Structure formats: structure tokens, C-alpha cells
């Protein structure tokens, strides 16, 4: 127990962080050395106690164990998860705990109590709720960043462009990230990953807001002169040079966005890409992006559709892609005759990757 207390105290001493603060655990930035020491301390604590008490009893009687376990688990996810089935097995294996030594119910109690000791609550995630809460606290897995940098950039770039500099809620960003899941390996197509990618975009726009002006030069200067501060906001752990390369490219995209939404000349844009799939093979991925707003005049000029004079609130759109159809719902923008879509991306089915996409057959109905 003394070693747990000592590690905990030293961890706080190394940070400007108060016990009553409430921040995501990834902002605490445990070092590799600290993570290894924490793993060793927790493993030794379990080994010392289990000869005369169960792991379930440890959870019931040692609040500090619960607190440090969730920090350990969040760091394990970030540092060691490399894709595949989501499971607690490897997380507890590294502490010398067998799966049958801790019940799922008690493990959930451990996570809930542990997070509460950090003044945190269970995130609203679907499926594996408690494992999902740990993932949110850990940040983006390092293996995901190193193996999928190109695809991560594609998703983040599109999220930035979708936002167009406007105030966009986290939930909307997460929805858009999910629409772009086809750029990601199957094992990373998870709600928690979408939430963490959305957090990156929020930080990018915060950097833009703090810059002395809205030029690319000023925005990059804000990032680089205050990178220590901004790094703690990002759910990313990697060498600074790698993070700087990714963030600098994205800030260039951010600088190009307008603070107000504008009518897009390219309301619908087709992207066709070759993506390396989970098996290391090239596969065709295509999406149609729906950006900004479209005016009644553009609907007439581009799609030969005349919006009725009463400007209906909803327009139902049919888009023909090869041998199948996709449907969009456009909502009018209050106060004018423009329309926008909450859906920002539509996947092109692989079998229709090379098919013609016919815009002239749009069917808009009131």
C-alpha cells in the first residue's frame, strides 16, 4: 500500500494539477516511465494481497487501487491497443489478474469508483460502456496514429471543412466523423474514436480563435509558441515532430475556412480513394461530400429544379449512383432561400466505385 501512496503522491508533485480538478486523464500525460512504474506497483500490490483476499475484495476496500487502475487502463489503451477485438483481458493480464478473478460487475464498479476519484463520470458510450469510458480517457491509441496517419488526416481535414469555421457541437462533429468511418480500419470504427477525433477538431478551432489574426502565419505562430499548452488539450500522444506535422497541415486547412457559412460552388463533391484495408490490401473507397449550403438559384442552374415560391422547409433528394439510389433531406436555412444537409458524407458502394453519378436525375419533392 505504501508504494501505491508514494507513486500517487509523486505523480501529483510532477504536475500543476489539483486533486479536485476535473480533466480527461489524457491531459495528465503520464510518461512511459511513469506508466511502467504504475504497472509494476499495481501488479505488486495485487500479488501481495491476493494470497489472503480476492481482487473483488481489493476493489471494495481500496479506493486508491480503483483510482490508479483507471489511469493505468487508460494509458494501456493508448499505448498498447493495436486493433482487434475490444476486451479487458490484456489490460488485466498485465497486472497478473486472471479473468475469472474479477467479475464483470465488480470490474464495472472499479471503473466507476476509480473515475469518480478523478472527479469524472462514465462517458455516454454504447456497447462496452465501461471499456468505452476508459478509451475516452486514454485518448487516441498510439498505434492508430502511427499506422493510419494518412487516413486520420483525411477524416480530420474533412471534419474541419464540414465545420466551415462555425460553432459546431461535439455531437455533430462525432456524427460527421462516423459518416467518414470508411477511411478507417474496421477495428477503429468505434464511437469512442469518433469522439476523440471530434475533440482534435475542437482544439484546432480553439487555436484559431486564440491567434492574433486569422492568417495561416498567425494561427501557426499561436500553435508553435504555445505548443506545450495545446498539446495537453489534444488527445494525442506522439513525438512532438509527428504531432506538429499533422497539426500544422490541419491548421492550414483551418485558416482557409470562413468564420461564416458561405454558399458552396461545389455543393456535392465526389472523392475516390485507394485505401489500405485491415489486411494490408488496397481497396476502393469513395464518398460524396455535401458541403455548405445551396441556394434556390443553384438548384435551378445545377439540377434544373425550381424551388416553389413558398420555400418549403424540407426537400427530399434522390441521387442516382450507378444502379442504386441514395436519399438526402435538405432543410431550409431560416431567413433565406438556401438549403443545407445535416448529413455531410455519403459512401459510394464499392461495386459502384467506377459508375457514373448522375446529378441531372435529382428528384426533389415537397
From TrEMBL:
NCBIfam families per UniProt? YjiT_fam
Please identify the protein, giving its name as recorded. Answer: Uncharacterized protein
